[in-house]
Write a structure and sequence with these properties.
This protein has helices at about 10-20, 30-40, 40-50, 65-75, 90-95, 135-140, 150-165, 190-200, and strands at about 30, 60-65, 80-85, 105-115, 125-130, 145, 170, 185. By secondary structure, it is an alpha/beta fold. It folds into two domains: about 5-75, Arc Repressor Mutant, subunit A, CATH 1.10.10; about 80-190, NAD(P)-binding Rossmann-like Domain (Rossmann fold), CATH 3.40.50. It is elongated, with a radius of gyration of 20 Å.
Length: about 210
Amino acid sequence: MKKSNLSRATLGRLPAYLRYLQDKDDEYVSAAEMARAMNMCEVTVRKDLSRVSSEGRPKVGYPRRELISNLDELLGKRNRVDVVVAGAGKLGQALMRYRGFEDFGLHILAGFDCEASRLNPHSDCPVLPVEEMSEFCRTHGVRVGVIAVPEGSAQTVCDTLVEGGVTAIWNFASYSLKTPRGVTVQSENLALSLAHLCLANGKGNDGRIQT
């Protein structure tokens, strides 16, 4: 199954399943066993695993090694995706330090900024001058870029990423980007997400996170 065929909620649970399976040494594991150990709904786990593997057997479970292999493939761990971050301010730095991207086979290759005080070309994840971003993307075959700059600079940065061959952009700027055909943009509105959470909480739900 392709990753794109999975719901966002299911995809978000896969790294936890993988960590659980890697800590086990049994030949087979069952959805019921995993649900109990991970304090999750058995129906949810069973549905998720059925989307990952067709090898589950009643009263036996799933072959653990095959399930690990399928999860590795779905999460992209066999084919690393390199990413660059445009903007090395507080948000950009936080994204560059976040280790959770590795669960999905994503690797932050470098950051870029126009402020000399933020440049650090010798770190494990270097921060380089934004003037070098387009050429860097072309040289390293980067296809995914993150925009973490003020809205006034967002379109220019977007154009630079596209010029370098980037075809997928994760945009944190409060600006509606204009891109050519074939370039995918996912925009994040942090204020809207927080407002949605607060509104949901105000309605007196049972405290569970809805996905």
